[in-house]
Amino acid sequence: MNNESGNMGNDYIAIWGAVISTVLAIIKITEIWINHYRVSVIGDFNIRGRNESIIHIINLSNKPMIILYWELEWRKGMWPLRNFMMKTKNGLPNWESPSRRKLDSYDNWSLPLSGNDYFIIHDDKTLYIKLYIAGKLLPKVVRVK
């Protein structure tokens, strides 16, 4: 009987450890979710027939971000057979570059595209923007709505 009660104590300790580790994992996932950059991108295309487009980038997170540079690309198809077609690229990251932009929390930035940067919307392709954010290893890829 003593042997069984000893095993029962080990079971309680194992259950307690599982509960604690689950709670800590939930807290960590919540912190990661709260601290990630949330961005919304909305496009206004062919404004008033002037061959001009504006892409609005909206910072939805509660902390500022610095956009070092950006790329627009068309995508067609589903993964893994997706085709990438580069449209325009805003230079290389450069501290003096005018493309560097600080977006405060809940701020927006309008990116006008006209002249050589203007493009025609394709019904069979989806437009995405890659935002290279300071401090992030990979770019934030967002669909332009």
Question: What can you tell me about this protein's structure?
Answer:
The chain has 1 helix and 8 strands, in the order αββββββββ. The longest helix is centred in the N-terminal third of the chain and has 34 residues. About 4% of the residues have low confidence. The chain has 145 residues and is α+β, with helices and mostly antiparallel strands. The radius of gyration is 24 Å and the shape is elongated. Strands 3, 4, 5, 7 and 8 form a 5-stranded antiparallel beta sheet that branches. The chain folds into 2 domains: 35 residues; 107 residues, Sandwich (Immunoglobulin-like). Helix content is 23%, strand content 38%. Keywords: Membrane, Transmembrane, Transmembrane helix.
The number of distinct structural domains comes to 2
* Beta-strand proportion: 35-45%
Q: Residue share in helices?
A: 10-25%
Low confidence ranges: 91-96
Mean pLDDT: 77
Number of strands: 8
Globally, the shape reads elongated
CATH first level of the largest domain: which class?
Mainly Beta
Distance between the termini: 68 Å
What's the SSE pattern? Answer: HEEEEEEEE
Named CATH topology of the largest domain: Immunoglobulin-like
Radius of gyration: 24 Å
Give the oligomeric state of the chains in this entry, treating copies of one chain as homo and distinct chains as hetero: single chain
Given the helix and strand composition, which structural class is it?
Answer: alpha+beta
Largest sheet report: 5 strands, antiparallel
| CATH architecture classification of the largest domain | Sandwich
How many DSSP helices? 1
Keywords: Membrane, Transmembrane, Transmembrane helix
Transmembrane segments: 12-30
